[in-house]
Amino acid sequence: MGEEDKVPEGVAGAGPRPSGEPPVTPSPWGLWDLGLFLAFGFFALLVAKFVTIFAYAALRPIAGWRVRPQDLDTNAFALVAAQSLWYVFLLGYIYVLAVVKYRLGFWTALGWRPPTGRQVLQLMLGGILLGVLIAHAPTLLPDRDTFPLEELFSSPAAAYAVAVFAIFVAPLMEELIFRGVLFAFFERLVGLRFAIAATALLFAGLHLPEYWRAWNHALLILVVAVVLSLARGLTGSLAPSVILHLTYNATFMVALFFASQHFRAIH
Predict the structure, then answer these.
(1) 91, 108, 125: which is the final residue of a domain?
(2) CA–CA distance, 244 with 163 (Å, rounded to integer)
(3) Distance set, CA 168 to CA 4, 81, 90 (Å)
(4) 232: closest CA among 111, 118, 124?
(5) Are residues 143 and 39 in the same domain?
(6) Could you report the per-residue pLDDT of 202-259, keeping only the tens digit for each?
(7) Structural domain for 214, as ranges
(8) What's 75's DSSP letter?
(9) Residues 212, 213, 217, 221, Cα dihedral to 10°
(10) CA nearest to 216, candidates 133, 105, 141
């Protein structure tokens, strides 16, 4: 065979890949992976609820707990436990997807860019301001004084459990899911504007059962969701939405703590 008949290396059909060349990694954030992520999330939610109920039923005679297993859907401690377990499952899946399958750094894959100290301070002030504005926003839709989330604050201990979860767990995990994974999928598959709108609507939809029939509260959560998604989209980083979310939640919990005599008189 002459020189002109040789097939260049790297061209399809040229034979086996050289041993020193790294294997081809799958293109990240594809439609198939989005479907698998959503399916796993739904399945993991069911498993987390089942495990929580099973563990409670097994430990109830030993610990002397009085709440019936069928009433756990309205118990703050059970809901926090089930939600935390669900987040553990999702965190593990996200890690496998980003690091093992896509072979990317975990935070790099989710769009995290470390903010400067000045940016952190600005974002914290922005979260506080957002909380104040939401707390004093006018009532535009039919609303009510009682709704499922408010009913979780049934005792000081329950209020402390919800507050710790709302400040130290929910902001990071919800941002990883919505402004991290789902945002990356939507931006890759459709575009930036769709990613901002879709993650805001999905985030508000997730919280809708907590504010059922308190429609003005639900509207305000949608406003917060839009702000968080815009922060992610305009900066190109996950960090701003995490800091805004954490500070926003902390603002409400701290205000409620002092306004309710340390969670003893919640209205």
Answers:
(1) 108
(2) 16
(3) 66, 14, 17
(4) 111
(5) no
(6) 999 999 999 998 999 999 999 999 999 999 999 999 999 999 999 999 999 999 999 9
(7) 110-267
(8) -
(9) 40
(10) 141
